[in-house]
């Protein structure tokens, strides 16, 4: 039976618990080997998300936008059609008035509309997509910050870095005052602080993008802007119980890779802002509860009969994604069984929650998109991010004087570290491998089987190196580095996402800034001179292709083709985008870490 949560109702973890209750709830969820104990303590404080069929329904406005989107496709055709455009519009009049006018549009005998009539209707009744996010001058932007990238000695590279730095002005937005006054007319959600958007069709804040945006902002000395982004993400937790995928009403059914604690950690390291840490800790405890709720957690018993709790992506949605309704229905058109179709839609949304939308990584058969099985996979990277969250919460609790919470989260991180080693680590290949579940219902405890480790090579197989628990182990770093060097992922201009050219954007030959950064940073921080040398080499390759593409196109790009210098990436379900928040952030972070020698060429 599907459990329906009211639209915009706060999830169970988002109601007003005090800090002590939040700590107790989080601590209850740490008792990973005793499901009954976890449930009883949790439920005494706040009901858990326990029904595997949980769905958060959409709003009437978004439902109407979906109808408009489908009508637009049928009327205007597929050429240059972007379904997201229609759910990003704003109403000029209230919804009943707009719906009534829509219904009264003249139709032909077969029920179709003329392109002229639909275009006129949209112009009369809607504000353009993006009008609800207005330009906002960043309060802490200066053209050349004091102490900016001191290791960059090459004047040509430095001039380009300042141009990338200046792009923060282009990407800065705040939610329009009109949204605050009439939120029912907009799909964009109100936020307290300005944001940095990724760029192009991505006109709103996104969760995991924000980590690399913040890393770039810190290199640009824009500390207040970085803190504002964190404040917005905390606001989502306070309103919904978790950080949304992005700042739109149609993103309330899923989150994205949980990197909020990592953002706060980096800001604290730069600024020492203790008030930010104190403000953030209750929100992080709520987010931790969300990711450890029943829909996300899975118990695996290893060969020594030890139970390990790990986590998966699981969107609270079983319909076409509103921002891609027309595309999702087309994908699902050959599935006749209703429940199978609903499950496919959940797999689509869960892949979007992973940030890797889409990739052969989530498919049972990479040649058949309908075999997406995201909820049946325990991902290496997600569990690495949650390990980082546990370590960060322990650190924040310690610096704020909450030794009990700090101790409990240190213990939790140790349990997860053991789980990652037991379930994901493959000694033979020297990589951490995603793990296939026997089924997606995850009722009870599943027994670990070696054959369930996904043998394909993905950049995510090396993401644990990003966390100190792994990069501080010298012998492990050496083994993983050699495996990485022989994996085939390292190409002339960066790290490929996978070895399979499936046509999906999170596959070969595309390289993505976040993946470059996590692997490079882990190698660089390991203390191994050889690993740091490898890291610097990868960073230089990535910087070079970003630079050449920028000089050719005048833009920073969402993704790059790691086989060809200066070529942006392709594939996937939408045209390549520019802007681009996380690409800008990673270039600046790399230049801050490694610099660029005066006599080193930057061209291909």
TrEMBL record:
It comes from the Eukaryota. GO terms for biological process: trehalose catabolic process. Transmembrane segments: none annotated. It catalyses: alpha,alpha-trehalose + H2O = alpha-D-glucose + beta-D-glucose. Its EC number is 3.2.1.28. This is Trehalase. Keywords: Glycosidase, Hydrolase. InterPro entries: 6-hairpin_glycosidase_sf, 6hp_glycosidase-like_sf, Glyco_hydro_37, Glyco_hydro_37_CS. It comes from Quercus rubra. GO terms for molecular function: alpha,alpha-trehalase activity. It is an enzyme of class 3 (hydrolase). Pfam families: Trehalase. Belongs to the glycosyl hydrolase 37 family.
């Amino acid at each position: 039976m599907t459990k329906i949560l009211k639209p915009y109702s706060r999830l169970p973890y988002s109601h007003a618990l005090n800090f002590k209750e939040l700590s107790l709830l989080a601590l209850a969820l740490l008792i990973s080997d005793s499901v009954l104990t976890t449930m009883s303590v949790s439920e005494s404080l706040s009901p858990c998300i326990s029904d595997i069929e949980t769905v958060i329904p959409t709003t009437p406005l978004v439902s109407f936008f979906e109808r408009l989107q489908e009508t637009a496709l049928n009327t205007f055709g597929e050429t240059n059609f972007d379904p997201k455009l229609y759910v990003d519009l704003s109403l000029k009049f209230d919804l009943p008035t707009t719906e009534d006018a829509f219904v009264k549009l003249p139709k032909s005998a077969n029920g179709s509309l003329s392109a002229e009539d639909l275009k006129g209707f949209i112009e009369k009744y809607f504000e353009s997509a993006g009008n609800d996010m207005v330009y906002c001058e960043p309060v802490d932007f200066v053209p050349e910050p004091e102490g900016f990238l001191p290791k960059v000695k090459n004047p040509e590279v430095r001039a380009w870095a300042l141009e990338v730095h200046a792009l923060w002005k282009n990407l800065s937005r705040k939610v329009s005052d009109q949204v605050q006054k009439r939120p029912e007319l907009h799909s964009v959600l109100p936020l307290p602080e300005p944001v940095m958007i990724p760029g192009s069709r991505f006109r709103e804040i996104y969760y995991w993008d924000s980590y690399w945006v913040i890393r770039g902002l810190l290199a640009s000395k824009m500390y207040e802007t970085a803190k504002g982004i964190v404040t917005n993400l905390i606001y989502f937790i306070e309103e919904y119980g978790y950080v949304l995928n992005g700042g739109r009403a149609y993103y309330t059914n899923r989150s994205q890779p949980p990197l909020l604690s990592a953002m706060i950690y980096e800001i604290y390291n730069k600024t020492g802002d203790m008030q930010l840490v104190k403000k953030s800790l209750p929100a992080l405890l709520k987010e931790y509860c969300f990711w450890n709720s029943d829909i996300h957690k899975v118990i695996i018993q290893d060969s020594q009969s030890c139970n390990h709790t790990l986590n998966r992506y699981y969107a609270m949605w079983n319909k076409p994604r509103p921002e891609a309704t027309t595309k999702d229905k087309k994908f699902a058109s050959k599935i006749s069984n209703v429940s199978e179709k609903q499950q496919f839609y959940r797999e689509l949304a869960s892949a979007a929650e992973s940030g890797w939308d889409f990739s052969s990584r989530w498919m049972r058969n990479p040649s058949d998109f309908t075999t997406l099985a995201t909820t049946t996979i325990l991902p290496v990277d997600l569990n690495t991010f949650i390990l980082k969250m546990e370590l960060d919460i322990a650190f924040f609790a310690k610096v704020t004087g909450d030794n009990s919470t700090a101790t409990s989260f240190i213990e939790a991180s140790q349990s997860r570290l053991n789980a990652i080693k037991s379930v994901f680590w493959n000694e033979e290949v020297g990589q951490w491998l995603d793990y296939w579940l026997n089924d997606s219902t995850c009722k009870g405890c599943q027994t670990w089987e070696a054959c369930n480790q996904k043998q394909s090579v993905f950049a995510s197989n090396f993401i644990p190196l990003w966390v100190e628990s792994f990069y501080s182990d010298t012998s492990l770093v050496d083994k993983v580095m050699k495996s990485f060097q022989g994996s085939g992922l390292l190409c002339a201009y960066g790290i490929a996402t996978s070895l399979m050219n499936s046509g999906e954007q999170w596959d070969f030959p595309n390289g993505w800034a976040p993946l470059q950064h996590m692997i490079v940073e882990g190698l660089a921080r390991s203390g191994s001179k050889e690993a740091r040398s490898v890291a610097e080499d990868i960073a230089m390759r990535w910087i070079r292709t970003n630079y050449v593409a920028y000089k050719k196109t005048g833009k920073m790009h969402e993704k790059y083709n790691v086989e060809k210098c200066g070529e942006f990436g392709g594939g996937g379900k939408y045209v390549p985008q520019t802007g681009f928040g996380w690409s800008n952030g990673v270039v600046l972070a790399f230049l801050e870490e490694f610099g660029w020698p005066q006599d080193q060429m930057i061209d291909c």
